[in-house]
Amino acid sequence: MNTILRGKSDFKGWIGDNYTSIMPVAMIVLIIGVFQIINPFFLQYQGIISLLYSMSYFLIAACGLTFVVMMGSFDFSVISVMKFSALFCVVYIDKLGLWVVPLALVLSMVIGMINGLIFTKLKVPSFLATLGISIVIDGIALYMSKGFLLMMENDTFRSLSVTFIAGLPSIFYWAMGIVILCTLISIITPFGRRIYAIGGNASAAAHSGINVGKTRVSVFMLSSLLAGMAGVLYMAQMGGGSVAIGADMLIPLFASVVAGGTTLSGGIGGPHRTLLGVIIITWMQTGMLMLGIGKDIQVVVFGIIAILMSVVTTDRKKLKIVK
Amino acid sequence: MKNLALKQILSSIWKMLREFPVVFILFLFFAAFSILFPDRFLSPMNFSSMMRQFVTLMLFAVGPSMVMTMGSLDLTYVGIWMLGGALVWLLTPVVGLAAILVVPLLGVVTGFMVGVIQARAKIPSFILTLSIMFTYWGLTALISGGYPRTVQGFQFITAKLIPGIPTALLWTIPVLVAAIYLIKGTRFGTYLYALGSNEEGAHLAGINVLKYKVLAFTVSGLFIGIGSMILFQHMGGSVAVEMNLNTMNWPLVAIILGGTPLMGGSGGPQRTILGALTLTLLVRGLNVAMLKPEAIQLLVGLMLIASILVGSRSSNKGGVEVS
Q: Model-level pTM?
């Protein structure tokens, strides 16, 4: 309808309709171009491997957060769950062997279920519920690791992430598989459509017969499961860590979700968008590190990106009251 | 007749407990720690540490608890405190002692910025202020070069006036009185309560919602700025460059523990006094009990969850959609 009325300015209108998809792609091209010109090693084999390493675990955690943001909520505990599952693996691998992996994932899911139940049953805003849980989990992680830097010596466990298949590390295949799976979940399955419906208008979704509470709990469980998986693969990739894991990851993670075009008001976006956002953020991070630009400036840049992108992508016509 | 009077007293106590359940917890903590550790908990040294801790919590929480009555969150305090310190360090050689005034100025500017972005662009306030906090942290590290720079010459702020009582506590009193007057005795405060209990209704009643939202964040920023000015000297007179999430979480716990509901509509700085007192007692008591830091963090997290659950009990009656 709009397209017909618009007439001549078709191209402009097309951009206007799709700018949340076009902008991330344009930004990626720009980033690759700029860093390639400044630093010719950016797109060589070693450079690409380091890009893939820096984005893979990040991408898995971001996919989980995307589902929550799509639903119009927020999960503050992603970083804490990731830290928890990574430390759980390194602390208990000697006692339990490879059973730590399923155990860490199950425990992560339990945390997600607690998040979801506090949010839905007790009607606590999701941000505060997950913030409270994340403080508790940080305490548990500190208790498990006693504050030390712990090293991983189990080669079988480490091969989860660092086996090279066709020249690329296996963590990259895990990440790609999860993005594709999440995209399929969000687009094809009824569960995914329900998430979009809840994000669009939760009370309308409830009136049309969707079990909003159950879906919300499942989404929080999914988010925590993916965060736990990111933690396991992170530990396998890095081979060690302390409670400082993920300390400055929260804002880049959030920025990559909104930079991809998933809106904070919910109902728009998806894991495929987050793939673009993660590429933007982590490649910028790696490129800046290659140029010797420190973490301080990165935090500032990503904070500003996070704010700007949330302003740009939010559809204000739909919203009446935002606290 | 006597029986009736007794009944009245009992019912008024019961009413007070229902309205301020935190008073009960406060006395419980005090009694428990006094009985368990009579020497260490009731020592003058512990009292002075308690007062210092209380001041820190209170000065951070005054402004945000005013915003909370409106149903929004303001987490910029850690950022303003850090960046303010860095700016003081930067400006002291240039303008001398007047440099300290940059902190309240930064607070007002930040608050105004947050208010305008939040009200105009309709971004959830917690995510906006969280991003700003991290951005300010990055700027702080950038300005100070990553070192905790000490600034000399501002010792007069906390110079001893009354033996045994930290001067910062004396500074807190006028700040608190001003805040309580603003929220209880002026039209501004009444409008904040109106915005918190029903924003749509407030709009229909002719309140300029946009103006009062911006005003609320600006006033909160001013109070945070004044508080950070005092805390800058109170917490050592140097630029803090390490992000400690406890500094962010504890004032929030104090506000929620005090009984300001998450959705706004009642509460305010006067309630936060109780919350800050209770949290101070808990933390100092646990310190006296020689618990490990991770155990203290765990218990504070559980305390936050418990107080969120109690606080949300009253907020979910109006059928408000919680996201």
A: 0.88
